[in-house]
Amino acid sequence: MFPAKTNHYFSENAEFLVTIAFMLLCLVFFIFFPSQGSFQGLSKGLFFLVIIPSLYIKFVLQKTPGDFGFSLKNDSTGFIWSFFLLLASLAIFYLALNYTNFKNIYGLPEYLVSNFWLFLAYELILANFLLFIYFYFFQGFMLFYLSARFSYWAIPIQAVFFVLFFLIINNFRWQSFPVLAVFSIGLITTYKTKSFLYAYASGMLAILALDSYLVYTLK
User: Fold this and answer.
1) H helices within the chain, ranges in order?
2) 69-104 pLDDT tens trace
3) Which of 51, 135, 137, 172 places its Cα 20 to 30 Å from the Cα of 164?
């Protein structure tokens, strides 16, 4: 038998504990569910990190994705924050390119460097949707759920989840640096604007600018 205080704690926090367990299960399934190739990985991410959480939001939490940042609230504030996020991301990329060995290690596949249309398709389809999936789950579902309980402390809590997630799937390689950079800076933008779409759009533009620059210099 559990002590009365323990039972009371679980009964008082049942929804919170179940939702956190659900989030962790989504991540576990995404990490360990077998897939081959980029498009299967993208489909897996869409299913476990977007579709399943959306169903949970609708039928269990009885809310809408708009309650978790999938909206363009505070548009004037959002555009201001997204502009500064874009500048900050580009500044970080500039420092990484000029003062570390990031440029020599990051790189892009030769077939993308030599073919503009393949590069554009890669950026707008694969990179774009993968970034959206990460933002939807972590800065949308997870951040907004945690912020209702922990206020601004949800920012570092969620950041730890995301970094640990990337450590598992990518071993913290330089290839992960652009996403980690725009995502980490974007957390504050998302929290302030109550929407992850501004941070996602600015992050995608920054990564597109970085990759375009690398393609230009490598040709």
Assistant:
1) 4-12, 14-32, 37-46, 52-59, 75-99, 102-106, 110-113, 116-121, 128-134, 143-150, 154-170, 177-193, 197-218
2) 999 877 788 899 999 999 999 999 999 999 998 988
3) 51
Residue 94 token pair: 């500039």
DSSP label of 68 = G
CA-to-CA distance for 181 and 209, rounded, in angstroms?
14
Model pLDDT, residue 1: 46
- Identity at 170, one-letter amino acid code: N
Angle 4-12/14-32 helices, nearest 10 degrees? 70
Beta carbons within 8 Å of 35's beta carbon, 6+ residues apart? 41, 43, 44
Question: Does position 116 have pLDDT exceeding 50, yes or no?
Answer: yes
Q: Tell me the C-alpha distance between 128 and 121, whole Å.
A: 10
Tell me if the pTM is above 0.70: yes
pLDDT in tens, 155-171: 999 988 898 888 888 76
In whole angstroms, give the CA distance from residue 211 to residue 219: 12
Nearest to 144 by CA among 190, 178, 112: 190
How many structural domains is the chain composed of? 1
Burial of 109 (0-12, 13-18, 19+ CB in 10 A): exposed
Better-predicted residue by pLDDT, 205 or 164: 205
- Residue labelled with tokens 């929804």: 15
* Centroid of chain to Cα 40: 18
